[in-house]
Write a structure and sequence with these properties.
A hairpin with a 7-residue loop joins β5 and β6. α3 (87-101) packs across α5 and α4 packs antiparallel against α5. The protein is built from eleven helices and seven strands. The protein folds into three domains: 26-177, no CATH class; 180-214, no CATH class; 222-298, SH3 type barrels (Roll). The chain has 333 residues and is an alpha+beta fold.
């Protein structure tokens, strides 16, 4: 039976055994998903950074810069409006500007059949009944300011307003860093936190902003490993300093405080106090420890890789190298 099978094999060619390491062809959707996720991983940090910068710009500009820009445009418009206004200028220029840059209403002009603006309607009334009325000058100033806002002057003043807003925020920082600011601001905050409703919101918002924007850096002195949450299980942590005196007295040993970051968000975690003799210093950087935590242990620092793991990786890479056709064919005899 074996000879007949061998002769049949010889007539049809050598028989190839299936290669268990040979990967099955990847489907179109799976390949698209893999490449899409790779592109998203490359672009997402940049997009998020740009989104945060835009959000900061809109925040500063909306609550500070916009009012500075509006005040600057109004000031320039008042300078541009003369004391004595020529009625012909009102009829030939200012009324047209009021139609173009005013606040549109739902009322139609009976003569032109077009929708008119609030400024145009009021200007036409005062121009007809009292050309010297103070309200006429105020309306012309308002129309001129709207005209400036929509042109190059408005763009330039908008940029200038944003720069001034940044400088104002810097001035506030200078004041708070001064002796008077350090003494006064905590008292103001204590008064604010006693107000109804505000005291339920302000402290929590302050905790978040202080964590993100505070100049004080966490005093992580070293990357350590401790047996947590029980003996036999090791967790990577960041040593923050000495433990509390009462805990050291209870343990009858010198203790240290260790922050155990959670995965994959290392900004949250647990603070534990352990005897210093139970702490193993890892001799790696804090960045390496955070990468290890974020990746759930996938990214191991090069200095901490086991030789056996390195050998397995090298062997797997060699096996994935394409071999010549027919090199894996086996003939059954």
């Amino acid at each position: 039976m074996r000879r007949g099978a061998a002769r049949a094999m010889s007539r049809t060619g050598s028989a190839s055994l299936p290669n268990p390491d040979r990967k099955a062809p990847v489907g179109l959707f799976a390949n698209f998903k893999r490449l899409f996720m790779r592109g998203l991983a490359a672009l997402l940090p940049t997009l998020v950074t740009i989104a945060i910068l835009i959000w900061v710009y809109e925040l500063v500009n909306s609550y500070i810069g916009e009012y500075i820009t509006r005040g600057g445009i109004l000031f320039m418009a008042r300078l541009a409006v003369p004391e004595n206004i020529d009625p012909q200028v009102i009829r030939n220029e200012i009324l047209d500007d009021a139609l173009a840059f005013g606040d549109m209403t739902e009322r139609l002009d009976p003569e032109s059949g077009q929708y008119i603006t609030r400024q145009y309607e009021q200007l036409a009334y005062w121009y007809k009944h009292d050309p010297d009325a103070p309200a006429l000058r105020q309306l012309i100033t308002e129309v001129t300011a709207s005209k400036y806002r929509g042109g190059a002057i408005g763009v330039a003043l908008g940029i200038l307003g944003f720069i001034v807003a940044i400088m104002l925020v810097w001035v506030v920082g200078v004041i708070l860093a001064s002796f008077v600011g350090r003494r006064t601001w905590p008292r103001i905050e204590s008064l604010v936190t006693q107000l109804p409703l505000i005291k339920a919101i302000y402290p929590h918002v302050k905790q978040v902003t202080d964590f993100i924007l505070s100049e004080r850096q966490m005093g992580f002195s070293a990357v350590v490993a401790v047996q947590y949450p029980r003996k036999g299980l090791w967790s990577l942590g960041l040593m923050t300093g000495d433990g509390m005196r009462r805990l050291s007295e209870a343990a009858q040993a010198e203790t240290v405080s260790v922050f155990i970051p959670s995965s994959p968000t290392p900004f949250t975690g647990y603070v534990i106090t352990v005897p210093s003799e139970d702490v193993v210093e890892m001799q790696i950087s804090i960045d390496d420890a955070l990468r290890f935590t974020v990746s759930a242990g996938v990214i191991v620092p090069p200095s901490q890789k086991l030789p056996s793991a390195t050998a397995r990786t090298t062997s797997a890479e060699r096996e994935n190298v394409a071999q010549p056709s027919g090199a894996t064919d086996t003939v059954i005899k």
